[in-house]
Design brief:
It is a single chain. The longest helix is centred in the last third of the chain and has 22 residues. The chain is 54% helix and 15% strand. It is elongated and about 70 Å long. By secondary structure, it is an alpha/beta fold.
Length: 259
């Protein structure tokens, strides 16, 4: 399978690195305006084919991945349109709010997908949402899903759920990082050095994730295991509630959906 990736910024670079590390993709062509970024990728993964010519990149590709800023998408699609056969090639938009209907308007009907991963793809730990266009075949869907599975977990959803998924799993990464930072700051205030506090916060988060994955518990079930009547855990939980923690998290997730 030959894939073409247009865009080697933070998100594009993470996807490319994840696929290159997997060793499961035969042929990856990367197109980017900056030769410097292309050279950096080639230094890490000599097997990559790189170019500054988007048109050259998409020729003969089985799957075309567009990982550019949304405001650049129209120009990129106009540039590559004469060289794309959407009935044979799958075209994937990884640009926020640039869905399959917009791809169809630019390229004509075909195997179009709206896909939002996150930058943990570099470490094969992305949570990726995949939505298929109306004309996309089952075979094309399987190929796209299999490709993104190499970079982490993948969920096929209705297109209207891609953006909520983005808020939870892509923007959500930043929200989780902010919680880790807060735990670190609390740890430092209580007497730990910053790196110690960071290690404690990360291991605690990893333990919480493992508990939920291995047991299948609802989070409240796990909370009950460490919350005893009159104990210290319930005091901390109540402080979170008094400060509007749950509401703040929900509002942060919904904020990006407002137009």
């Amino acid at each position: 399978m030959k894939i073409a990736v247009i865009g080697a910024g933070n998100m594009g670079g993470a996807l490319i690195k994840g696929w290159a590390k997997s060793g499961q993709v035969d042929h990856i062509v990367v197109a980017n305006r900056s030769q410097e970024k292309l050279d950096q990728l080639r230094a890490l993964f000599p097997q990559l084919q790189v170019t500054t010519d988007n048109r050259a990149a998409v020729r003969d590709a089985d799957i075309i991945i567009l990982v550019v800023k949304p405001w650049f998408m129209d120009d990129v699609l106009k540039e590559i349109q004469p060289h794309v056969d959407p009935s044979r090639q799958s075209v994937v938009s990884c640009a926020a709010n640039y869905g399959t209907e917009m791809l169809s308007q630019a390229l004509g009907q075909g195997n179009h997908f709206y896909v939002i991963p996150n930058i943990a793809a570099e470490f094969n730990a992305s949570m990726t949402f995949v939505a298929r266009g109306a004309q996309a075949s089952d075979e094309a869907l399987r190929s796209v899903v299999d490709l993104f599975l190499l970079d982490g977990a993948t969920s096929v959803v209705a297109e209207h759920l891609v953006e909520p998924g983005m808020m939870m799993a892509s923007c959500g990464l930043a929200y989780v990082m902010r919680y880790v930072r807060a735990q670190m700051e609390g740890g430092v205030e209580m007497g730990f050095y910053p790196q110690q506090a960071k290690q404690i916060a990360l291991q605690t988060m990893e333990g919480a994730v493992r508990l939920l994955k291995e047991t299948g518990w609802h989070p409240e079930e796990a909370i009950d295991k460490v919350t005893t009547p009159g104990g210290i855990t319930i005091k901390g939980l109540n402080e979170l509630d008094h400060s509007g923690f749950n509401s703040a998290v929900i509002r942060s997730l919904k904020a990006g959906l407002k137009r």
